[in-house]
Structure formats: structure tokens, C-alpha cells
Amino acid sequence: MGKSIGMDYAPLAAALAGRLRDRGTPEHIATLFARVPRHRFLPDVVWTEDRARIDRTEDPRTWLRTAYTDQALTTQRDDGRDGGMGLPTSSSSAPSVMARMLTAARIEPDQRVLEIGTGTGFNAALLSELLGARNVATVEIDETLAETARTSLYAAGYTPDVIVGDGERVEANAPAYHRIIATCTVARVPWSWLDQVRGRGRIVTPWSPSPGAPGGVLAQLDTHGRGLAEGRFEGSLAFMWARGQRRTGQRAPDAHAGPDHVETVDGDPRTDFLDGERALILSLLVPGWFHGMRVEPGAQEPHVWAASARCSSWARWHSDGRVEQAGARRLADEFAAGMSWWGARGGPGVDRFGLTVDRENARQTVWLDDPQHALWSTHRQIT
Ligand SMILES: C[S@@+](CC[C@H](N)C(=O)[O-])C[C@H]1O[C@@H](n2cnc3c(N)ncnc32)[C@H](O)[C@@H]1O
Predict the structure, then answer these.
(1) 63 by DSSP, 3-state: which?
(2) Which residues are catalytic?
(3) pLDDT tens across 91-124, in order?
């Protein structure tokens, strides 16, 4: 960790905990942030949410102050490889987001918790402070990160079980945990998680229908001991993807590809995509797509494109009202139908949608208000 910073972290940590309390975090969770020193889990170099690079060796005071701000701090880029595009691949999540997930997990004394995505180890330290380290296990797919986290945890006096491995495939002979908290996004809740949770347990995970869909949500799923987990979404939430579920091989439609259907609508058809909340709703209404924006040569404004995750169909929405589609799947029609269905029901918010993970039928289903009101399902082989 290098030389001492000559500044006390305790008032900074207490202030952070105070801000979490002010925002409604329950006392037993907020107090963890005053007791566990976040800076002891951070590497010397971190990147802030506005991509500023903060180096402890150059500016130790700013580094320490940054550690106690309520923001996600990127701690690894490009899976730790040099020469990449600088894509964040590990971070210490924003404290308010961690507090929200810890609260959503409804952890009770003496319960055992499995965390997926150790990262820096800070969340495992908070859990250890809450429950005692013997009740905490955490899995990290990146061996170097796991080793660093273990060292930080032990140095701070916490000794949870730090497992190097793929958290999507955790194995155990008998259900061992009451709660799972994942700190990486999944589109498919791994079946193995259902095996890990005892009877009536709870899985809390960032969830998004597919990589490249707009944003994500916090899924809080109650397990019922029969290979079933079910529950509502609780607001939007953006996290890095679980390594095995990152976007792979998906491409934006060819910029020169011609549509096989064009219509012109009144107003700007990109509106739903440009509004974060409505775009998130779209991702719950229409499955299996990813999207982006692109500026055509000579165009004043970017257009929005979406492409099917299942086939080569695509659609484009232009600021001048043009809506273009190509392929067997009429994506723009699906979005329009989805939005009018949603509008006819009074525009329900994210919190009225939910997810059922049904192992027996190899199905994960998004619903509105009630599991009986299924919107769409993904079918997935049980492996
Ligand atoms: C947002 S960070 C986790 C933050 C962490 N909980 C903390 O307190 O610092 C996400 C982590 O998930 C890890 N990860 C991604 N896919 C994983 C998988 N399949 N199994 C275990 N860890 C995974 C990443 O390597 C990354 O370290």
C-alpha cells in the first residue's frame, strides 16, 4: 500500500455512512460503511465515474477522499491486459448501490451468503462485518483479482471463503446458502444458483435481457426450494456483465445495408430510445435485441439502430421520422406494438415487472404484475 497518507479516513467513512442513512439506508447496513475502510480495498490507481484517473502515489489525499465518495471506482480495465480499449472489467461499486443490494437481500442474523464477483473484496468485507466471515463466501473469476481481494480482506481482519472460479457454475453437494448477491449482470440466471440456495432463500442480482439492451434492473428473486426463483424488479441498475454472458460476436447492422421496408412517422421516432426509462421498459417488453447510435456521413443527427440477438434482422430510427427495417423479424413493429400495449396499461414502471426462473421447465419468464401475466420467456437447456 505504500507510505501513509497522513490523513484520517474515519471521518470520511462516517460522512459516507451518514449520507447513506440520509438516503434511507437502514441503520444496520449504513453503519457497515463507517466500520469497513473502503480505501483498504482499492488499488493505487482507480478511475472515477467521469473517467478521471486517480493515482495514490501522485495525489494520496485526493485518492483517499475519492474512496469515500458515492461512486463506482473502476479498478481493472480490459481484464487486466495492456493495450485494450480501456473497458472497465472490475470495480468497487458505488456505496449507495451496494447498500441497496444488501438491503434488498433482506439478510438475517446467522444466514450464509454467497457473493458472485468478489472484485476488490469490499462487499465481502461488509458482509463479513454484518454476519461474521464464517458465513460469507465470495467467488471471483479473475484469479489475480481474487488473490488481491483475499490479501486485502485478510489485512483488514476479515477471513471469508474467497473462491477462484466461474460464479455461473458454482458447485456444491448440498444447498449451502440463504442468500446469493451477484455483483455482475446476467441475462440468464444460472441454474446452479438455484442449487446453492436453501429452501426459502433469496437471490439478488443485476439483470438485463441481453448485452447491448438499454440498462438493467435489480432482480430480487425468492427461491422456493423446487428449482424456482421468482420476484419483482426493483428499479434500474447498471453493472458489468458476468464474463460468460458478455456480448459476443454481435455486430451493428452494416452501415450501407439497405432496408426492405421504410415508413415515415410524425415526430422523432428515436424518442423512446433516448429516454433512459422508456428504453429500459422497451427492453422488458421486447426480448432479444441490442442497440446503439450512429451518425451517417452528412447527417446532422445520429440515428438509433437495433439488431436482433437471434437473427440478422435490424431496424433504424432517424430524426427526420424515417423508420427502416430489414429481415424476417420486424423489430420496429415489435417495438411499436410493445409501446402501445404498455401505454394501454397506463405505462407501468419497472417495479411492476418481474422474473420467474423455472429450472424444471428450463424457462426464464418476464411478467407484468403477476407471474401469471407472462410477457415472454427464454428457453435454455439445463447444462
Ligand atoms: C462490479 S465488480 C464487483 C465488485 C465487488 N463486489 C466489490 O465489492 O468490489 C464485478 C466483478 O465480477 C467479476 N465476475 C465477472 N463474471 C464473473 C463470474 N462468472 N464469476 C465470478 N466473478 C465474475 C469480475 O471479474 C469483477 O471483478
Answers:
(1) helix
(2) 93
(3) 999 999 999 999 999 999 999 999 999 999 999 9
Q: Which residues of 344-371 are buried (b: 16+ CB within 10 A; e: fewer)?
A: eeeeeebebbbbbbbbeeeebbbbbeeb
Per residue in 256-269, pLDDT (tens digit) is 889 999 999 999 99
Query: How many A from CA of 120 to the centre of ligand 1?
Result: 9
**What count of Cα atoms within 13 Å lies in the side-chain half-sphere of residue 104?**
26
Closest listed residue to residue 251, CA positions, set 305, 316, 323, 295:
305
Establish whether residue 192 lines the binding site of ligand 1, counting it when its CB lies within 6 angstroms of any ligand atom. no
Which residue among 93, 118, 130 is best mutated to probe the pocket of ligand 1, counting the most ligand atoms within 8 A of its Cβ? 118
Give the distance between the most distant pair of CA atoms in the chain.
66
How far apart are the CA of 139 and the centre of ligand 1, in A?
8
pTM for the whole structure: 0.94
Query: Quick one: which atom of ligand 1 is closest to the CA of 125?
Result: 8
Average pLDDT over residues 229-255: 89
Report CA(78)–ligand 1 centroid distance (Å): 13
pLDDT tens by residue, 359-371: 999 999 999 999 9
